[in-house]
UniProtKB/TrEMBL annotation:
Domain Peptidase S54 rhomboid: 48-215
Protein keywords: Hydrolase, Membrane, Transmembrane, Transmembrane helix
GO cellular component, one term: membrane
Region feature Disordered, mapped onto this chain: 242-268
Family: Belongs to the peptidase S54 family.
Short name of any one Pfam family annotated for the protein: Rhomboid
Source species, domain of life: Bacteria
Protein name as it appears in the record: Peptidase, S54 family
Residues of the signal peptide: none
Principal subcellular localization: membrane
Residues passing through the membrane, by range: 12-29, 49-76, 139-160, 199-218
Subcellular location: Membrane
One example GO MF annotation: serine-type endopeptidase activity
Amino acid sequence: MGNIPTITKNLLIINVLVFLATLVLQSGSGIDLNNIFGLHFFRASDFRVYQLVTYMFMHGGFTHLFFNMFALWMFGVVVEGVWGPRKFLFYYIACGIGAGIMQELAQFVEIYLQLNEQAPLGVGEAFVVMGKIADQLNALTTVGASGAIYAILLAFGMIFPENKIFIFPIPIPIKAKWFVMGYAALELFQAMAGTGGNVAHLAHLGGMIFGFFMIRYWQRHPSHDFSQRRGPNAFEKMKDFYERHSQSTPESPREETRTESDWDYNTRKKAEQDEVDRILDKIRKSGYDSLTREEKQRLFDQSKRQ
């Protein structure tokens, strides 16, 4: 736990403590925290605005909690290590809220279609009917951090698109960008097909969608980036580094003015890339704070080169 960044560590602790409190209160006094803090449908009588935040700290069972927290630990450590705590926390909470909003919209469409099958009615009329059955709609409750977790997964894929990871049950390593796109496609398919039982697939997609547009906004507005304390626009620097190493620029001014031989130049560039790849792998495994001062400077200097 000592090597886990602050926000990721606290999120893990809070989720576990809330889950234990839910078990104790439910067995001891019959109080169901999931019913109080879980996200109810917005036309249900028990809906409260604060549930858009609290629902992501509630879980339906140990398995639900375990896999969410495992993914938070696996990918959150790396993303927070690159972004810093303030930006990471804002991203996590905002994407969780976005996932909840997406789930609310999906539930509204589902209920509207069911009502419309019984008797054709407009959207305004559907609102009125839903208000009359508000107590029955309390059964529609969403819990879990999955929307925010999927957003963290997306961020990892966008920061380290070429990084290969092992994911059970896939027997071979797969690049992060393909893994993220595959997961998004699977969630979309299951959402459209209506499969997965009680799994909120559109909430998962909602977290990823909100995360994608948030990252794109930060890319286009560097002054609004949260991670200024670790150098200007850390995300842009990481992205630019990958783009430069994935493209060759033989006609650039640097290529035209260099005096070293092609062999020496390629050897030097290969050594530089290997060193930066080693540093990025260290961030992935142990977080940004595990880097030495020289390694941080090397990464910063490399990211400024054009």
